[in-house]
Design goal:
Layout (H helix, E strand, L loop, with lengths): L1 H23 L2 H14 L4 H13 L7 H14 L4 H16 L3 H17 L6 H13 L3 H12 L6 H14 L3 H14 L4 H18 L2 H17 L3 H13 L3 H14 L4 H13 L3 H14 L4 H13 L3 H15 L2 H16 L2
Helix pairs in contact: 1-2, 2-3, 3-4, 3-5, 4-5, 5-6, 5-7, 6-7, 7-8, 8-9, 9-10, 9-11, 10-11, 11-12, 11-13, 12-13, 13-14, 14-15, 15-16, 15-17, 16-17, 17-18, 18-19
Length: 352
């Protein structure tokens, strides 16, 4: 009996010391105290629970599940109404999420949400977001979307990210109306978020291509300009150049499209866009060079041939224009190109 009393007193002392150390943030020392307790009393649910919490606080996420699973088993027998059961499932799920083990995070987070909802307590927004993102990263978009939509409506530091992920799902589904709405909110929540601006510009341009809306092309260009302030790189130049081109702001398109073309000397499409921007900006000599480069890379590109023929015709080099129009006609057999051949042939005949 005396041994039992001494043992209980020692355990109580270890418990109080462990809790005090935990509350002070000395998790390593607290962990040692709780480990001593379970050595003496393997059924000490609270000690197992704190062991898991200490490992979590120490960011040793791979060591969290075992003690917390033990705590859950004991609590379900000893104290089935304890809120610590939900807390343990939450911590296990978040540990897997933070370790990028999204498949393992789902069930614990679902258990946490189910227990919490059944007890009519408020489900933590971070847990809902982590569950939604876990589904997202596993490409289970039907399950991710309602969770992320709910999480994005709550005021939190992660609302911009949740809105971004919501926008990504809609973008992947080619639902640009919903994608644009979500991504605009993401940008408002975090104006410095380059990824949201990036995808917003792409969604606006895709919708602009489908609808032929000049306003959407101009809006995409404005988003590209905002992006340029944050991130001046080739990816931004690509977005900005294409947006300016679609918005028919050809003078502005030249600089970013030249940057892309010079960085991708073997990319015919890049040189074509650059050549078109130069051509429509009346920079004919440079346009000729860029479009000749395009044709070297893509000899059968009807768009490049027709643009180059137009440039030569505009520069009154009718023989050169005629030669290129004829090459384009051999590729397309387009009646409109045939008409261009006849027109330029007549102009060439009039030259001295």
């Amino acid at each position: 009996m005396l041994c039992m009393i001494c043992s209980a007193t020692a355990a109580a002392s270890d418990w109080e010391r462990g809790v005090a150390l935990y509350n002070k943030g000395d998790y390593r020392a607290a962990l040692a105290e709780f480990q001593d307790i379970v050595q003496e009393r393997a059924d000490a649910a609270g000690a197992w629970y704190y062991i898991g919490l200490c490992e979590f606080k120490l960011k040793r996420y791979d060591r969290v599940e075992v003690p917390l699973a033990r705590a859950i088993d004991l609590l379900e027998i000893q104290s089935p109404a304890s809120t610590d059961i939900a807390g343990a499932w939450y911590t296990i799920g978040i540990s897997h999420y933070l370790s990028n083990q999204y498949d393992k995070a789902i069930e614990p987070l679902k258990r946490y949400a189910e227990i919490t909802s059944k007890a009519k307590r408020e489900v933590d927004a971070g847990a809902r977001a982590a569950l939604g993102r876990s589904y997202f990263f596993l490409e289970r978009y039907d399950e991710a979307l309602p969770l992320l939509t709910a999480a994005s409506g709550e005021k939190s530091n992660d609302s911009a990210s949740n809105l971004y992920y919501t926008g990504v799902i809609h973008f992947k589904r080619e639902d640009d109306d919903r994608a644009i709405a979500a991504l605009k909110k993401a940008v408002d929540a975090s104006p410095e978020g380059a990824t949201a601006l990036d995808l917003l510009a792409e969604s606006l341009m895709r919708k602009a291509r489908k609808s032929g809306s000049d306003a959407l092309w101009s809006e995409a260009a404005e988003v590209g300009e905002r992006l340029l302030v944050i991130r001046d790189d080739l990816k931004t130049a690509n977005i900005l150049g294409r947006a300016y081109l679609g918005a028919r702001q050809f003078d502005k398109a030249v600089t970013p499209l030249e940057k892309i073309a010079r960085a991708n000397t073997d990319n015919g499409q890049a040189w074509l866009y650059y050549g078109i921007a130069l051509s429509r900006s009346k920079k004919m000599r440079k346009a000729m060079e860029a479009l000749e480069m395009t044709i070297q890379l893509m000899p059968d590109s009807a768009a490049a041939l027709l643009e180059l023929a137009y440039v030569y015709e505009s520069d009154k080099q009718y023989q050169q224009a005629l030669r290129i129009y004829e090459k384009a006609y051999n590729v397309t057999n387009d009646p409109a190109t045939k008409e261009s051949i006849e027109r330029v042939r007549a102009l060439a005949a009039q030259q001295p």
